[in-house]
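Q: What residues go here?
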């Protein structure tokens, strides 16, 4: 049923507000932390997983009662690439549901006035019309390689919408496209396609490998957004947008995986052959977001793909000894 409009007009956040960034050490969370600091926020709150297990419901409720945040950005999640999602669907479904329900329920108990829930573009049907509009949600079957994760994120969107209807709190959701940048997961087993390529190609360059083999055919098309642009979009939405429907966050431009591989090879200085293992899955054939809602609100990305990948390669090399395995 349609939501009645809330009596709420988004405006600039008070820079002295208590802002809890759940998942502040992750790819998105760490970028959010940097961006909010750069924008003058003086009371950011974060807890590592060892300090606060978000799957522990009582611990989460106790933390919210103690910290009483004014704004919550829920960026904490169990994430991974095709292999990880295909191999451990129970983990991705169960852990993400626990994290979301605990954080959102605790925020509701404290009547947190502004919450931003972050999901993923995998919530949309595998064969959705392109570019994918926000109203494509729940109109078709999901990509089976990450359907468990997608269902968890869909549940989060619906919980935000339910809170709006039942309690009148102006909570919102944003669904980013494929993200990359400093702080990414470069693990061979758990990473997404772009950081996995950066690691593979950089290792090939250092080992003087004759060829690099990638999964699939190289034909699927993907959209990539630098995580610093994502952080900028999140603050923009908190200050300029309100509504029940999730907002797509991306560039509105996509590339084939083959094209991405060429950009990565150039960025790391690899000059060998690029091969494709067509026995491995491609995943969704195309995933480009319609970002007209976000664009209409006055936001656009600033980091170009070649520039962003080059900077990410530099970060990877600087942190090679400490990145996750």
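A:
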């Amino acid at each position: 049923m349609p939501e009645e409009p809330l009596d709420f007009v988004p405006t600039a956040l008070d820079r002295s507000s208590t802002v809890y960034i759940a998942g502040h050490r992750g790819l998105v969370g760490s970028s959010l932390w940097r961006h909010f600091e750069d924008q003058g926020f003086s009371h950011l709150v974060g807890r590592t997983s060892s300090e606060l297990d978000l799957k522990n419901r009582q611990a989460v409720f106790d933390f919210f009662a103690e910290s009483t945040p004014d704004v919550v950005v829920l960026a904490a999640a169990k994430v991974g690439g095709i292999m990880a999602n295909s191999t451990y669907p129970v983990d991705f479904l169960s852990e993400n549901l626990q994290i979301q329900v605990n954080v959102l329920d605790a925020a509701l108990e404290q009547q947190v006035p502004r919450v931003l829930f972050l999901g993923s573009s995998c919530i949309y049907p595998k064969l959705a019309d392109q570019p994918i509009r926000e109203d494509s949600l729940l109109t078709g079957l999901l990509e089976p390689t990450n359907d468990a994760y997608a269902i968890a994120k869909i549940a989060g969107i619906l919980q935000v919408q339910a809170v709006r209807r039942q309690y009148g709190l102006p909570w919102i959701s944003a669904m980013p496209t494929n993200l990359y940048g400093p702080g990414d997961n470069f693990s061979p087993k758990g990473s997404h396609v772009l950081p996995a390529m950066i690691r593979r190609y950089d290792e090939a360059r250092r080992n003087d490998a004759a060829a690099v083999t990638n999964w699939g055919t190289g034909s699927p098309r993907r959209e990539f957004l630098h995580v610093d642009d994502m952080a900028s979009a999140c603050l923009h939405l908190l200050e300029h947008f309100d509504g029940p429907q999730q907002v797509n966050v991306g560039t509105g431009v996509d590339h084939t995986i083959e094209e991405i591989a060429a950009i990565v090879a150039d960025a790391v200085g690899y000059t060998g052959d690029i091969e494709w293992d067509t026995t491995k899955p491609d995943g969704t054939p195309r995933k480009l977001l319609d970002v007209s809602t976000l664009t209409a609100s006055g936001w656009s990305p600033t980091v170009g793909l070649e520039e962003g990948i080059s900077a990410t390669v530099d970060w990877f090399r600087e942190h090679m000894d400490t990145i996750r395995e």
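A: Context that may help when evaluating the design: The mean pLDDT is 94. The domain at 18-183+223-254+287-303 is CATH 3.40.50.720 (Rossmann fold).
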